[in-house]
Amino acid sequence: MSKKQAVIRADETVTFISVFDVEPEKQQQLIDVLNEGAEKVISKRPGFISASILASKDGTRVVNYAQWKSLDDVKATREDPNAAPFAKRMAELAKATPNVFTVSSIHTA
Fold first, then answer.
1. CA atoms of 14 and 77, how far apart (whole Å)
2. Coil, helix or strand for 68?
3. Three-state DSSP class for 82?
4. Where exactly are the structural domains of the chain?
5. In the 8-state DSSP scheme, what is residue 71?
6. What are the C-alpha distances in Å from 64 to residues 6, 52, 98, 109?
7. Residue 15, SS3?
8. Percent of the chain at pLDDT above 70?
9. Which Gene3D superfamilies match (predicted)?
10. Dihedral pair phi/psi, residue 13, rounded to 5°
11. How far apart are CA 73 and CA 23, in angstroms?
12. 40-69 confidence digits (pLDDT tens)
């Protein structure tokens, strides 16, 4: 897992966010699967920009925040057979609510 600073882009970039509801004792397993999938498959896909994985302090949620160059890149990645085993493992651990967003604004200090 890379410990880099991510930059949130508010341009034509497509933001894919998936919120996972997970049992606290399975949160770390889910994070491990997300990290493995990002490192082995997702980060190598065309159009990939970045992915950030967030864990709730109470252990009940995980958020996967990823940015892509286009919606077609997101769709192609979701249909990639190499991503399917990771999606299956995630579904066994948690219930996901995925959606595609546009960053409307960013506020910084």
1. 13
2. strand
3. coil
4. 14-101
5. H
6. 13, 6, 9, 24
7. strand
8. 94
9. 3.30.70.100
10. -60, 145
11. 31
12. 999 999 999 999 999 999 999 999 999 999
